[in-house]
Amino acid sequence: MLADSLTQLLLSDVPDPTDFPKSPPGLRELDSSLRCNICGDLFDGPVTLACGHCFCSLCVRNALAEKAECPICRKQASETQLRVNLAIETCVAAWKLARTHILRLTKEEEERLTRPKRKASDFERIVIESPMKKRKRAGGYDERNSSPTPGSSKSPSKIRPKSPVKAKRVVSQQDDDVIEISSSPVSNAPDIPSAADLVTCPVCEKEVPFALINKHIDQRCPPPPPSDNDASTSKDAQQTAWSKLMAGGGGKGRPKERGIDEEPIPKASYHTLKDKQLRELLLDHHLPVSGDRSTWITRHQRWVMLWNANLDKSPNLRKSANDLRSELKKWEAEKTGKKKTVVDDVAGYEKRNKAHFQALTEAARPRKVPDKSPSAVAPGSPDVASPLATPRDIILVDEVEEVQIG
Amino acid sequence: MSLAPPRSSTKTSVTGSTTEGAGSVTRRLSSELMQLMMSSSPGISAFPKSDANLFEWVGTIEGAPGTIYAGLTYKIFITFPPNYPYVAPNIKFESPCYHPNVDLTSGAICLDILQDKWSAVYSVQTILLSLQSLLGEPNNASPLNTEAAGLWDSPSEYKVQLMRAYRPISDGPSA
Questions:
Q1: pLDDT of residue A207
Q2: Cα(A226)–Cα(A232) distance, integer angstroms
Q3: What positions does UniProt annotate as the active site of this protein (chain B) (predicted)?
């Protein structure tokens, strides 16, 4: 539909790189580097041109049909140069799986940092001060703490990338450091949790029992055990979570009819073809033969493009021939189909079409009176002459009623 | 963009896309709109003209600070063809603009990226930024308004003509 309501659009979710905040660096850039510069979506059948620039196969085939140059650098280019970019395709598939998860994590982190951050700053102080005191013993810390900054003066955004790293290092040398933390001044760490208390993991920000926090971080933050503190359950939970994640992605590869003749279709030189041959060309691919010769040509051109672009995807990501056919149909409908005209001057539009409206009203009347439906002209309706409620209303008129596709 | 709803209300869902069913042009236009609203580029804005038609936008361009157009705001119309972005959108000045590369009466613009140098990777944002820089740095070699091109080198006279043609756009967001 061309006439999407704007409010609808604004409320809908258009996934794009700005979904990610700027502060954990690289996420927004990662998302945008996996998107096609033409359509703005994640690469769908990525292909590379001779200059090295990468696009969705269908997007770049469309662009090359307009002009034989790379849309980014304008180097001369042609469809024969296109090479499938398998690495990017795999990358996009993995990112699609991870994206929602990472978005959720960054969002949780954002929310957590906007809450009063007593715990976070305490942790920062412990982490920074304890190694400073034991500089002599734990020699490895010297270089890392060459510019010690008091945690309190840091902005929250600066704490974030640093504290997890340091915390991890402290914890990984637990034999020495656990003692050091608990012996640090009470004013700095007023609430040392007991073993069963839940503490927030500095890396993944999940609530984890204090006794398990070191193990949790060492294992790179597995999901916390659902019910108890048993380590084996935690591992099981981790496995279930992973298999769930993988299954969710695998579910996308729905079963498809796979044609035997998955060969690229060569372009036809239409001017050498007679109508009959052109017709056969369409029928060969089970395409509709409605419309005139020029419709046939555009239809076949589009079909070749859709078909060949589809072949640039890995077999498990390809669409079925029937899916492509309905895509072609949709494209034609979008191209030739209903164009909505916005009527701004409602009064003028009414005046101009008065005769037409009256004819319609006349035609409707004999049918409506007998069945007395509530939709019939309401008794006492003030302005029958002006059926178009208020002058502020916007009226949409279908310009082309018929879509000529079989 | 005063019309842009707060971020939280536009980007709440983290799951799949709800524009999935829409046509590719509509999808691209909505993502461009989102991009424009999120990036807050100074001095440029654009928004669909009406609720019902995503293919016609109204935009504003402010003259860049330090140029002769500083402090002036122009209204433009953008019309997208059905095969956008493979074909350039149609752009013209709605407010009268005295400029070597703009036709004063029709608002037509002479800018290579809007004609033969168009590329599918350009967007509304890149167009508006190009137009903004075109205001301060006209291409006097191919003028549409020869008088303006001739006066460009004498700024004080140019400014007089510029201000004579200028019509401030009414306040408030243009939508």
A1: 76
A2: 11
A3: 110
